Amino acid sequence: MATETDMRREQRGGVPAEAPPPEIETIGEGLETEELILNLGPQHPSTHGVLRLVIKLNGEMIVECVPVMGYLHRGLEKIFEWRTYQQGPRYADQADYVSAMLNEHAYCGAAEAIAGIDVPRRAEFLRVIVDELSRSASHCIWLGSYGLDVGATTPFLWCMRDREEILDILEEICGSRMNHNYFRPGGLLYDFPPGVLGKIERFLDRWEKAIDRDYREILEGNEIFLERTVGIGVIPKEVALQYGLTGPMARGSGVDWDLRRDRPYSIYPELKTLRPVIFTEGDAYARYQVRLNEMKLSIALIRECIDKLPAGPVRARQGHVWKCPRGEAYYTVEGAKGEVGFYMISAGGSAPNPFRAKMRGPSFMNLQILPWLLNGRLIADLVAILGSIDIVLGDVDR
Amino acid sequence: MAVDQKPPARPIHFEIADALKERPTTTQTGLGAPDYVPPTPGALANEDNVVFATIKDLMSWARSRSPWPLGYGLACCAIEMMAASASHHDLARFGAEVFRSSPRQADVMIVAGTVTHKMAPRLRRLYEQMPEPKWVIAMGNCASSGGEFWDSYATLQGVDTVVPVDVYVPGCPPRPEALTEGILRLREKIFRGG
Fold it and tell me: What is the model's pLDDT at position B133?
């Protein structure tokens, strides 16, 4: 398997140096090419939302790319200051709306760290289950839309088919398909309804086969997909570290960094099946491999959690009016796109709301490598490179 | 830890006559059902293959059958819009699955998500670039009224402050079925000449 993709990578010339902007060529006597400024977005099917890119082109070569953001800036961080800790997770959903549970986990983790609440063991296991389901749903969306980006329609239909099942499960658990509002500081809103665990297991059995049989075969057996991803958008390990990439972007470049293992939270240290997925090639194909293998990792983690699931309450005992003491905390969660972090300050006293809640959006941090990646590349590779970053504009702009 | 048991299989009706008898007949009435549209006299219901209709009625009929939406996702609702057009909730059943990337080819603009002050002028420009006749569906609470961002400093309190809206679809985000319902309502409105 590796030989064919390695040959393709060698043909592409391996890891590129930071390409200098190409000079304006002079063709013949008195003729010269001139740079073209192309505006992409904010309404464009390939920008996955309302991202705007201002691209300077020389022929087919991208000389410069300036991302313009803020078309979805809703002032979430200010709203966090006006909402109580119980209302906060609902707005954390809105940041990365594709994998909403992970944002809620980060928000509640920060609030619990300040207040010093011990979350019941059962709640932690259930949290990990819904986290991994949410991560799988996010990777499904990414795989489907990335297939659309590079010209394949069928993976989109198949991924959305499987995502619907995940959303059905999540709806049964928390009553909403998206924007779940399931986490609370100190635990969860309520326990799983009866029958859900069996439903999850049956879904995982079916989905595990679907990943190998459907996704892998239709994409990795496709000449066009390989041609458009292998060796495209290569990020060397040093550059990934310099730009502060996290999540699948970093792990696709060989950075061995997974917060579930390296900055353990919840009950992840107890899980034996947690082995982070690392690929060293750093191109779009490696990032695809990381995300696909993370789907299988999520399946293993959910199964282990269901096996070990203890009984007990799902919410810590708290007072009727819940207040947070004075303090500050930074809590990170390995999100679907990278490190989701909440830095929260509580002013103490009788304030039921955080004084400040700063969110670290992984999409925003990962997007900043885009100008470096596009510099000196062909315009035809733009969509394949942008899609492989896996941005969600709600997370970029917040 | 024992995992929950599988639910027992439901019995299946093999007698077609029984199944037909048990089929609900009230799908077109009741809460949330489309308003009753009286049949247009003479139009498209003639057994002699002769159609008597005004041009306006015929145009409305033709327009209402397949509204092409503008592929225009803003926030969370866009994911549900994608889900509505994907395999499970097949929007192609109602002729509205052709998401056009260019506003010049679109009939209906589905405003799916929060509209910020920075996005509002672009949204208005997209609306103006669409050819007449054109319709707007405000999908979700944010686009309908501001929704949960009612006190945000950066968002528009309802997209109807910028463009005229024909159908409001509430929900945060609305289920794909709700969007389908909104498109069906819009079809009725277009059919009536709206």
Answer: 87
Query: Is residue B21 a part of any domain in this protein?
Result: no
Residues of chain A neighbouring B2 (CB-CB closer than 8 A): none
Contact B119 A394 (CB under 8 A): no
pLDDT greater than 50 at residue A345: yes
Residue B133 near residue B194, CB atoms below 8 Å: no
Q: How confident is the model at residue A200 (pLDDT cuts 50, 70, 90)?
A: very high
Asked, for residue B75, whether it belongs to a domain, the answer is yes
Predicted complex ipTM: 0.81
- Nearest alpha carbon to residue B126 among B108, B148, B114: B108
The CATH number linked to B140 is: 3.40.50.12280
CB contact under 8 A, B152 and A78: yes
**In this predicted model, which residue has the larger pLDDT, B175 or B5?**
B175
Q: Which of A131-135, A365-369, B3-7 has the lowest mean pLDDT?
A: B3-7
What residue ranges do the domains of chain A occupy?
Answer: 76-397
Min CA distance, B36 vs chain A (Å)? 31
**Structural domain includes residue B18:** no
Chain-chain contact of A74 with B154 (C-beta, under 8 angstroms): yes
| Domain count for chain B | 1
Class of domain A76-397: mainly alpha
**Closest residue, chain B, to A394 (C-alpha):** B75
Q: Which two tokens stand for residue B193?
A: 């000449």
Residues ≥6 apart with Cβ < 8 Å to B145: B157, B158
Task: Give contacts of B74 with chain A, Cβ < 8 Å.
Answer: 49-50, 72
Nearest alpha-carbon partner for A325 in A343, A350, A359: A350
Q: Label residue A299 by pLDDT band (50, 70, 90).
A: very high
CB neighbour list of residue A30: distance below 8 Å, 6 or more residues apart? none
| A103-132: average pLDDT | 90
- Is B117 among the domain residues? yes
Chain A touched by B149 (CB under 8 Å): yes
Determine the Cα angle at B68 with ends B62 and B74, to 5°.
Answer: 150
Range(s) of the domain holding residue B160: 66-191
Query: Please, what's the largest Cα pairwise distance for chain B?
Result: 71
Query: Are B3 and A197 an interchain contact pair (Cβ–Cβ within 8 Å)?
Result: yes
- Tens digit of each residue's pLDDT (9 = 90 or more) over B97-146: 888 888 888 889 998 888 999 889 988 998 999 998 889 999 989 888 88
